[in-house]
Amino acid sequence: MPHPFPALIVVDVQRAFDEWEAVGKRRNNPDAVARIANLLKAFRTNRAPIFHIRHEGTKPNSTFLPSRSGYAVKDEAREEAGEPVIVKRVNSAFIGTDLETRLRAAGITTLVICGATTNHCVETTTRMAGNLGFDARLVRDATWTFDRVGPDGDTHSAEEIHAMTLSNLNGEFARIVTSDDVNASFAAR
């Protein structure tokens, strides 16, 4: 039997990203974490399922190693009792984890995805969710990314990368929504 609510998938809201910013990496969507906190509140209020995803680095200098401060979740996105935490070691929350098994066992068909970063783990998880047949909804204002230098040496702004990622995913892999859209869907029930 299908689950009556979508599941919130919170991807990699970890302190490593604060450390990146502290050393000068520039990001977009400065209010994304506050919006994630609001989504968590809405899902908890409605007793809708929540899955927390953590990235565990595997390279010796990764800021996501469990022994380093960057591995810890940001306080605003901390899990509560009974909310599963799924640890991944690659970009997709579906590879090497039991996320798909848990979702299918619970009858969950719709996923609301947020977190970091838009063009890495959020994008890869969203693409796979769509490919696996889930009704994926990526929350555009509850994810963020950083400026990057491309292979041609040109700098691409976080805003450009974010917008292009959303464009690439829209319609084929996911529906792009806002946090207000998600909150309104609960109010409409």
TrEMBL record:
Database matches in Gene3D superfamilies: Isochorismatase-like (3.40.50.850)
InterPro entries found in the cross-reference section = Isochorismatase-like_dom, Isochorismatase-like_hydrls, Isochorismatase-like_sf
Gene Ontology MF, one: hydrolase activity
Q: What are the alphabetically sorted keywords of the record?
A: Hydrolase
- Alphabetized SUPFAM superfamilies for the sequence: Isochorismatase-like hydrolases
User: Residue limits of the Isochorismatase-like domain?
Assistant: 7-180
PANTHER family assigned to the protein according to its UniProt record, in alphabetical order:
ISOCHORISMATASE HYDROLASE, PEROXYUREIDOACRYLATE/UREIDOACRYLATE AMIDOHYDROLASE-RELATED
Q: What is this protein called?
A: Cysteine hydrolase
Taxonomic source organism: Bradyrhizobium betae
Q: What is the lineage of its organism?
A: Bacteria, Pseudomonadati, Pseudomonadota, Alphaproteobacteria, Hyphomicrobiales
